[in-house]
Amino acid sequence: GMVMMPGPVFDCVEAVQAMADAGELVMLTPAGERLTQRVVEELATKKRLLLLCGRYEGFDERIRLGLKPREISAGDFVTNGGEVPAMLVIEAVIRLVPGVLGDEQSAADESHSEAGRLEYPQYTRPREFRGMTVPEVLLSGDHGAIAKWRRQQSELRTRERQAKSEPTEREE
């Protein structure tokens, strides 16, 4: 398949970097470091990000060698191009920009925001739906008990997910 040529990519990156602060250059590639909340938090501290999205068979190796971008992968799968992984980066990073969510605590309480911990289960009305009920503690009004329940549920979900993601003998 076709590979993105170095000349046009170098020209584009150099022109954009000349307009303002060069920013951090990020190449979306299956060979990059895995995108995690920690990486997102680090990227969110940057004043400017330039995202390189591949197409076809990807980038000519000289782009990586010459521009020295930070290489990031959205996960262990392949997409038709780097646009969707770039949108994942944008979506995850922009939520951490102060003022975007309106309530700064929103991002702090979410999954992966605290040492990879998953968020607790969420409930809304009605109180009972098809035999499934909202846990009584959430209806109690006891903020301390609710906070304790949320923490316990968060830890339980995290342990369950970690157990499911342990590699099997076949995967090793």
Q: What's the story with the biggest beta sheet?
A: 3 strands, parallel
Q: How many helical stretches? A: 7
Question: Could you say what the CATH architecture of the largest domain is?
Answer: 3-Layer(aba) Sandwich
* Shape label: elongated
Query: Radius of gyration over alpha carbons?
Result: 21 Å
- Beta-strand percentage range: 5-15%
**CATH class label of the largest domain:** Alpha Beta
Element pattern in H and E: HEHEHEHHEEHH
Distance between the termini: 30 Å
Q: Note poorly predicted spans.
A: none
Number of DSSP strand runs: 5
Average pLDDT: 90
Assign the CATH topology of the largest domain. Alpha/beta knot
Question: What features would you describe in this structure?
Answer:
The protein is α/β, with parallel strands linked by helices. The protein folds into 2 domains: 6-94, 3-Layer(aba) Sandwich (Alpha/beta knot), CATH 3.40.1280.10; 109-164, tRNA(m1g37)methyltransferase, domain 2 (Trp Operon Repressor, Chain A, Orthogonal Bundle), CATH 1.10.1270. 42% of the residues lie in helices and 14% in strands. The chain has helices at 6-19, 37-44, 61-67, 83-94, 104-108, 136-139, 143-164, and strands spanning 24-34, 49-53, 70-73, 128-129, 132-133. The strands form 2 sheets. A 3-stranded parallel sheet has the order 2-1-3, with helices on one face. It has a two-stranded antiparallel ribbon with strand order 4-5. Strand 4 and strand 5 (132-133) form a beta hairpin. Helix 2 packs across helix 4.
